Amino acid sequence: MTAGAATVRKAEIMKMPGNVQAMLQQAQKMQQQLQERVAGIRVEASTGGGMVTVRMDGHKRLLEVKIDPQVSGDLEMLQDLVLGAVNEAGKKVDQETQSMMGGMLGGLGLPPGLF
């Protein structure tokens, strides 16, 4: 594609009908809002009756790990409890994110399961 053709193509894209541009702008705004809300998610999950508790943010980064000293002597059990708590926290983040997306996208009239 020549430089002139690329400029013409770019101009064609920029001349989208107003409603399409508005929809794209709305989608970008919604995406930004969703990212901001996801960043604010905080979940907590425990295993072993609270022997291991983890806190995680919406980007699935661990924020905190609490371990009851009683389990420190059993390394294998401790590993299993930490793994279970982290996995459960990840599921909770996924549920929160899906709930947010459903609420934000529900008014658009999109087919179920699209996002």
Structural notes for this entry:
By secondary structure, the protein is of the alpha+beta class. It has one domain: Ybab, Chain: A, CATH 3.30.1310. Helix content is 57%, strand content 16%. It contains three helices and three strands. It has helices spanning 3-14, 18-39, 75-105; strands spanning 42-47, 52-57, 62-67. A three-stranded antiparallel β-sheet has the order 1-2-3. A hairpin with a 4-residue loop joins strand 2 and strand 3. Helix 2 packs antiparallel against helix 3. The longest helix has 31 residues, at 75-105. The two termini are 35 Å apart. The relative contact order is 0.12. The model has no long low-confidence stretch (mean pLDDT 83).
Strands side by side in the biggest sheet: 1-2-3
How would you characterize the largest beta sheet?
3 strands, antiparallel
Total helical elements: 3
Order of helices and strands: HHEEEH
CATH topology: Ybab, Chain: A
Low-confidence stretches: none
Q: What is the number of E strands?
A: 3
Q: Main attributes?
A:
single chain; three-stranded antiparallel sheet; rod-shaped; 3 helices; 115 residues; Ybab, Chain: A; alpha+beta
Outline of this structure?
This protein is α+β, with helices and mostly antiparallel strands and 115 residues long. Helix content is 57%, strand content 16%.
Write the layout of secondary structure elements.
Elements lengths: L2 H12 L3 H22 L2 E6 L4 E6 L4 E6 L7 H31 L10
Antiparallel strand pairs: 1-2, 2-3
Helix pairs in contact: 2-3
